[in-house]
Amino acid sequence: MYINRALLLMVGIAFIFSPMIEEWISRGGTAWYRPYQVWLIIIVASYWNQRSRVTDEL
Questions:
Q1: Over the chain, what is the mean pLDDT?
Q2: How far is Cα 56 from Cα 52, in angstroms, rounded to an integer?
Q3: Each residue's pLDDT tens digit, 7-29
Q4: Is residue 28 one of the residues assigned to a domain?
Q5: Bigger pLDDT: 19 vs 58
Q6: What is the C-alpha to C-alpha distance for residues 9 and 4, in angstroms, rounded to an integer?
Q7: Domain hosting residue 38, numbered range
Q8: Number of domains in the chain
Q9: Nearest by Cα to 6 from 40, 38, 51
Q10: Which of 1, 9, 31, 33 is least buried, going by the fewest C-beta atoms within 10 A?
Q11: How far apart are CA 27 and CA 9, in angstroms?
């Protein structure tokens, strides 16, 4: 099984910075769309990571 190095690095960074990211999302008095920005970043990063993958794998 192949584990993409960029994906592994992104998961490691997210794990390390998760307390800071959680505080940033839940900070009071901020914009209502802040959690959606995080999800948009995750979706775009996932798409960018998978766009170059060969689809002929079994």
A1: 79
A2: 12
A3: 788 888 888 988 888 887 777 67
A4: yes
A5: 19
A6: 9
A7: 5-50
A8: 1
A9: 51
A10: 1
A11: 26
CB distance 37 to 28 below 8 Å: no
First to last CA, the chain: 11
Which own/partner contact pairs does 37-43 have at CB distance under 8 Å and 24+ positions apart? none
Contacts with 38 (C-beta within 8 Å, 6 or more apart), sequence order: 21, 25
In DSSP notation, 1-58 reads ----HHHHHHHHHHHHHHHHHHHHHH-TT--TTHHHHHHHHHHHHHHHHHTTS-TT--
Please name the residue that has the structure tokens 């990211």: 21
Nearest to 34 by CA among 45, 53, 21, 44: 21
